[in-house]
Structure formats: C-alpha cells, structure tokens
Amino acid sequence: MTTRLATSAGPHATRILGLGHYRPANVITNHDLIARGVETDDEWIKTRVGIAERHWADPDETVVDMAEQAGSKALAASGVSTADVDLVLVATCTMPTPVPAAAPNLAARLGIDAPGAFDVNSGCSGFVYALNAASAAVLTGQARNVLVVAAERFSGWLDMTDRSTCIILADGAGAAVVGPSDASGLGPAVWGSDGAQFDSVAIDEDSHFFRQEGQTVYRWATGQMAPVALAAIERAGLQPADIAAFVPHQANLRIIEALARRIELPNAVVARDIVTSGNTSAATIPLALSRMVESGEIASGAPVLLLGFGSGLAYAGQVVLAP
Ligand SMILES: CC(C)(COP(=O)(O)OP(=O)(O)OC[C@H]1O[C@@H](n2cnc3c(N)ncnc32)[C@H](O)[C@@H]1OP(=O)(O)O)[C@@H](O)C(=O)NCCC(=O)NCCS
Predict the structure, then answer these.
(1) What is the DSSP letter of 279?
(2) Domain boundary among 180, 208, 223
(3) What pLDDT is stored for residue 254 in this prediction?
(4) Which end of the chain is more exposed for a tag (fewer CB within 10 A), N or C?
C-alpha cells in the first residue's frame, strides 16, 4: 500500500497587507564621491546612470539593523501582530558572512517568537522571489502571515577605485507583510534565469569587491526584460492599460526609461527612486514601492507591475495590488 501524507491548505488568496522602508541617514552626493577621490563628475553620473545621491550606512550599521527598521514599519502598517507571523524571509546578498542568515536574528529583534526563518539570495531580483515564497507558504497553510524584508549594505563591498561601480550601489531596506485575502492581490510570478551569464554581476572571490560587465547587463536588461513584464501582466489577467504603476529594479535610470518605453504602460506612474536612493539591489523594489505608496503616488488597491532582474542572471516579474 502506498503511504499517503497529509497535506495542509490555507486561504485561497494572498496579498500585501503593509509596506515599510528604511534609508540610512548618510546621504552621499556625487560631489561627495569626488571629494572622496573618485574620478568622476556629477553630470556623467546623472546622464549615464541617473543618480544624484544615494544613502550609505554608518560603519557600525548592519544589514539586520536596516532590515529591522523596514520590517517594524511594515508590521505596523499591516496591523498584523508579531504573534501572528509564522515565517520571516530576508532577501539579501550583502551579509558580511555566508552564515548565519539574517532572518532568524531579525525575527528575534522584532519579537517574533520562533518563526520559520531563512534568507533568499537571488541578487537584485531577490525580493520578488521572496514575495512568492511567502505567498506559497500562506496558500499552503504553512504560515498565517509572512514578513518579507529586502535589505542590502553594498557600501561594504565597493572598490572605490572602480568608478563604473562605486557610483551606483547603495544601502537600504524595504519590507512587506504577506497574508490571507478574500481576493488575490498577488498575480502569478513570471521568473527565470540565464545562468550562462552567471559571472556578469558578482562579488569577486579574491578581492571581495562588487564587479559587473556593465554593458552586458545593460543589453540583457533592455533587450530581454520587456517580454517578461508583458507576460506577468497577461498572467495576472490584465492589460497594459490596467497597470497604475511600474516599479522595476532600480539599476540605472536609462534602463528604467528604456523598459518603460518598450512595455508601453499608458496609465502607469514609473518608479525613479534611483535618483535619490541609488541601486540597493534586492531592496530597490520594496523601497521604491513603499515610498510611492506612502507619498500617495500609488493608491491603495492599484495594480503595480514589479520587475526584478540582475545577478544570476535571474529575473522575476509580477503584478501586485498596493496595500
Ligand atoms: C555601468 C554603466 C553605467 C557604465 O556605462 P558605460 O556606458 O557602459 O560605460 P563604460 O564602462 O563603457 O565606460 C565609458 C566611458 O565612461 C567612463 N566612465 C565610467 N565610469 C565613469 C564615471 N563614474 N565617471 C566618469 N566617467 C566614467 C569610462 O572610463 C569610459 O571612458 P573611455 O571611453 O574614455 O574609456 C552601464 O554599463 C550600466 O549602467 N550598465 C547596467 C549595469 C547595472 O545597472 N547593473 C546593476 C546590477 S543589476
């Protein structure tokens, strides 16, 4: 006789219940970088990358410190008590060491008692992957609510003599609480990867500095990501005209503008958070989304297209409803 195991089932739909974000207090302008000896100029950075300023953590401010700030705000916004959170996920690729993971420590700091806890590392697309792991856990009855945080501290991994990378990357965190819903607020993710290009974005094994083949990533993102975004809209059962906001990974303003042109979303406000936040890798999407919801640029219930892409090269697109 075949042994059958019991399965668990949760609610039939999930959504984002609340968002939060955190940017470190230190604002680093392009002129500050020049003052620190980087051979660059404000105009080049603004024209080629779109960044005017970015936030860098204090020397003693950690990934988990930033995750705690964003996570506690998302919990407060969601109205979900810590006693009702059964799983904590952290999307990050900048922890100082491979173990321990950030998630158990974050949960303890927030007073979430003994949840499942793990980190997700998919570089800049990590938040969308973690969001879907969270939703799956709720839908299968393995968690009532999930705290998802993306936090990065890239300032610790920069080669300040490499002007094509040290001007781009930054620190920050964004968070979402995922829980049950009467109607679906999380469309199906469209995800994938091109592992043949695995070494185009990486932390160098010897130097421990961030390295990337900038033009390879630029061509891949602008050439390959628009069909992923359109597929995510279709799988959510919507048309491009239904999308109220487009929040892509904030890698480079020129990539964002090129994608917005190709995807053609006639009614969507486009996230350009990179101008004042820089590229915070996995954190860019929830950071931008949370700031836009907080400022009223994105209304509650509005369909938002998320598009993560980067190291791997991995990507994930998804339509969500704003909380
Ligand atoms: C990184 C990126 C901005 C570099 O732009 P680029 O046009 O490819 O620049 P290149 O590296 O070819 O350099 C072009 C010139 O600008 C110069 N340059 C590079 N960085 C500079 C800087 N910060 N300031 C001034 N000049 C700079 C180079 O030295 C080079 O000069 P040269 O022509 O005299 O040799 C661009 O490739 C990019 O945005 N790629 C996407 C990658 C990305 O966003 N990754 C994030 C991870 S998902």
Answers:
(1) B
(2) 180
(3) 97
(4) N
